[in-house]
Amino acid sequence: MAKNDPISEIKWNERKDDLIEHMEEYHESFKNGNVFRGPSYHFHRRALDSKGDEKIEMVYAVLVSWGMHRMGSGGAKMKDYDEFQKSLKPLISQIERIKKIVSEKGATKQTFYDISNDLKTIYDKVDVMESGVKIVGNSKVLAHYLPEILSPIDRQYTLNFLTGNVNRTNFNEKLLSFEMFKTFHLEIVLNVINDSKFRKKANQWLKDPKNIWDTSLPKIVDNLIIGKITQEKIKIRKAKQAKKMI
Predict the structure, then answer these.
(1) Do residues 52 and 91 make contact, with C-beta atoms less than 8 angstroms apart?
(2) Is residue 174 within 8 Å of 5, Cβ to Cβ?
(3) Residue 81: is it exposed, middle or buried by C-beta count within 10 angstroms (0-12/13-18/19+)?
(4) Residue spans of beta strands (DSSP E) within 7-113
(5) Annotated domain spans of the chain
(6) Which pLDDT score is estimated for 172?
(7) Percentage, residues of the chain above pLDDT 70
(8) Taking residues 122-150, what's their average pLDDT?
(9) How many helices (H) and strands (E) does the chain have?
(10) Quick one: average pLDDT of 214-243?
């Protein structure tokens, strides 16, 4: 990556180490602050568990329930379902081939490199967002098809976590690219889920029925990021309140 490239400027090792070192704290923060209930969880589970045409429809539904389509003016907008289905359905056989490779070789960096060309083709062709950021919508689609190796990405949590600014709203275009999608998985997701300390604890969380959102190792990484950012926002809010009282 070129000098002053916004992706190379991210402190990848520091972010990765932070998640591993504070995973129990962030996991607890996620559980305590979790407002993702109702349709958000229902359609997430349905999207993971369903197959065929029903899965395409459930993945579309989970994106709506996760706030990817805002009715009225302003905010993110999704394509009509027919357009989304038309873009995704021809890619299913390619996705299934990737899924088989991941199942056979495991969710490792080498596996990701092996599938990255096919993954980019799929990523580029999935057409779900009318407006909004492609990396956000497409990562959420693909995370429901390849949950063993892919994690959702969003602005409010993932990108703010990586850039170190919990209130950031605007991002350099490079931070919204497939290169960012790829680097995030190689430097954060796969490094974390293959860490022995994390894996031991995460496997315990996966077995606990109370941890309903711990649906895969990459999703747990996403949960930890949400937990950290939630914690940071609470600290900022409390600091502002304390300042007003002075």
Answers:
(1) no
(2) yes
(3) middle
(4) 77-78
(5) 12-245
(6) 87
(7) 95
(8) 94
(9) 13, 2
(10) 89
